[in-house]
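Progress narrative, Year 2. Work on DeoR/GlpR transcriptional regulator from Trinickia violacea advanced from sequence curation to structure prediction during this period.
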Amino acid sequence: MLTSQRKSEILAILKRDGQVLAKALSESFEVSEDTIRRDLRELASEGLLQRVHGGALPASPATADFAHRQPIESATKRAVAKAAAGMIGEGQVVIVDGGTTAIELVRQLPRELSATVVTHSPNVAVELVEHPGIEVIVIGGRLFKHSIVTVGAAAIEALSHIRADVFFMGVTGVHATAGLSTGDLEEAYMKRALAAHAAETVVLASADKINAASQYRIGELAMASAIIVEKSTDAALTEPLEAAGVTVVRA
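Result:
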């Protein structure tokens, strides 16, 4: 079998099973594990999968920067954001992550709601300037321009006196065994810190982020008490998450 054919088969198995193991592939294709690992490295370099110990997972396609993601509005994104906004109660303190869905979330907040929003996203904060009942606390730090959020030691230190009711987290990968992940190391640290300062964490995830992984792990799937997904998300994608004990909310 040609290398290109073997790679195509690997991707087909990955799509079917949601993961591949180097040992099983080497036995199936009757080649060495070194050969399979080389195939996986090359496929990973093309962004076609995410390597993990012993094999690979589907790679998350959600890697575009904020400027490219912002114009992409959809009814499904608004539905996810509206479901998240509906979880915020009167007088609560909530942490809102950065990202386009997070911005849509704060746009969906009722005008009569009185609450406090803590965010490390300047864009989220600006969206709330004209909201009469929302107190806004902005976490300062180094601006990560790709996602337009603050990160780093100063941002994490600023969280030290905050105890929130819920953190609405954006991710680029949600996987039953690989957990929650994102495409930048400092963002992963920041998201983990934000989750540590909230009583519960709710993940906002479009279908293309489910059963996928990115380079940097935020934490175990159990970090999330609930995951809000599009109503049309295939049940085959969400069933492993529910089996792991996470509540899946379809919006």
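The mean pLDDT is 91. The chain has two domains: 3-57, 66-250.
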